[in-house]
Amino acid sequence: MRTEHHLVRELRQRGLMPLVRAVARDHGVKAIDLLSQERGRALHAARCRLWGILAARYNMSSVEIGRLCGRDHTSVLAALRKPVPAAPSSREGCPVQRRSEDVAA
Fold first, then answer.
1. Whether residue 49 has pLDDT greater than 60
2. CA-CA distance, 25 to 65, in Å (whole number)?
3. Please, are residues 11 and 25 in contact by the beta-carbon 8 Å criterion?
4. CA 87 to centroid of chain Cα atoms
5. 3-state SS of 40-74?
6. How many Å apart are CA 10 and CA 94, to the nearest integer?
7. CB 96, CB 52: distance < 8 Å
């Protein structure tokens, strides 16, 4: 298993660390914690938002996102399918498409 520092190095090489920092700041968590194995509601929401942005804006697959963030691709898929609470400061939700029944509720 790759450590958080290896993940940070690869994200820096790809120029994605500013995005990771911005999402972490919006959710009030540390950027390194987004890449760790720690769990929690705030971390889950921040990871979902980060993964959604990587999938939508950068056209990355769940396998690639999982490899970049130290998670299995099925964890990424499951997170992208669930609606998540908005970031406390920005009040924006996860930037992935939601099912129509989620939007209507």
1. yes
2. 20
3. no
4. 12
5. CHHHHHHHHHHHHHHHHHCCCCHHHHHHHHCCCHH
6. 24
7. yes
| Torsion, Cα of 48, 105, 100, 61 (10° steps) | 0
Q: What angle do CA 13, 60, 88 make, to 5 degrees?
A: 85
DSSP summary character for residue 7 = H
The enclosing H or E element of 63 equals: helix 62-69
Both tokens of 24, joined, read: 């972490």
DSSP 8-state class, residue 89: T
pLDDT band at 27 (very low <50, low <70, confident <90, very high): very high
31's CB contacts (< 8 A; 6+ apart) are 8, 17, 20, 21, 24
- Say how many Å lie between the first and final Cα of the chain, rounded: 40
Widest CA span in the chain? 42
Token pair, residue 56, equals 């939508």
Query: Tokens representing 59?
Result: 């056209």
